[in-house]
Amino acid sequence: MKLTKSDFNLTTLEDELRVDGLCRELLMAFYYEKTASGLSEHDATQLANSADYFVRDYLVGARQLNLLETEGKEVRRFAGNWYIINTLEPDIAELEVHLKAVCEFFRYLAESGNISYEAFAGIESNCASVEFYRDRIESFWNIQGDGYFEWEAGCSLKND
Q1: Cα torsion 4, 9, 59, 25: sign
Q2: How far apart are CA 55 and CA 33, in angstroms?
Q3: How many CB atoms lie within 10 A of CB 30?
Q4: In the chain, which residues have pLDDT < 50?
Q5: Model-level pTM?
Q6: C-alpha distances in Å from residue 60, one per residue of 77, 91, 155
Q7: Nearest to residue 55, comparing CAs of 5, 105, 17, 118?
Q8: Using CB atoms within 10 A of its CB, is residue 42 exposed (0-12), middle (13-18) or buried (19+)?
Q9: Does residue 100 contact residue 39 with C-beta atoms inside 8 Å?
Q10: Are 34 and 47 in contact (CB under 8 A)?
């Protein structure tokens, strides 16, 4: 399935709803691709659900970003900040599941020609930074006083 970048642009609430639906369709195609390649329905569901969390909750819902223009720094922001502050009990094992799914989903987009392999390489690299994310979770739990601002600056959600 060849996608058009402009179809994933977000400027209005209507755009967000439309893009959310497009992402849902794309995630279902990803799920079917995984089951067709031999992954069990259970494992394909887990993979698609974790990718969905990143794509629809983070990229589209929270950040209002175009899926097909995603760069590795968004994975870093997601895993090193947004996931941690938006999860009751951030856990590196759970986060690793999400990161594996994000990597596989963007590999799927690269293999289908919808993102460049260069963009995928940046995403893949940031998905592999597990020790950095482990440290971010641990340091989050150790915040004292007004230390949040220093913690947040270490992997900020603010655009460069």
Answers
A1: negative
A2: 17
A3: 23
A4: none
A5: 0.93
A6: 14, 23, 20
A7: 105
A8: exposed
A9: no
A10: yes
